[in-house]
Amino acid sequence: MERAFLEAEKAASRGEVPVGAVIVDGESGNILAAEGNRTEERNDPTAHAELLAIRAAAATRGEPRLPDCDLYVTLEPCAMCATAISFARIRRLYFAAYDPKGGGVEHGPRLFQQPTCHHRPDVYGGLEERRAATLLKAFFAARRES
Prior knowledge:
Elements (H helix, E strand, L loop, with lengths): L1 H12 L6 E6 L5 E6 L2 H4 L6 H13 L7 E7 L3 H10 L3 E6 L24 E3 L4 H17 L1
Helix pairs in contact: 3-4
């Protein structure tokens, strides 16, 4: 999770919403991908940290599914990212802050609880929640001031 926070801080320094994501090979513990949000930089509404990390890890592996991999992210994934997590067959999802407004895992559509969801990762939320919430609040407070 520490690396995910580093990626979130780097995203904030680029003017992006501070969300970081890391995909780890569950067997070796090696990091396959580490990304932060890049929606503004790329003018791409899909350039969320989770999607970028999934794309990079799949490219590294040369396969579209990551069934033995774990995803660490600093904010509860949105519905789009939760769908990608399911399609990638991620084994475990660990996230820091809950997102009552935009989350798609524990809030909103609760994607993994839907009968149409083909793969449900093990989900562990609220890890270092206060740290993530502080980072997000500081980012948005600074944006409101400028």
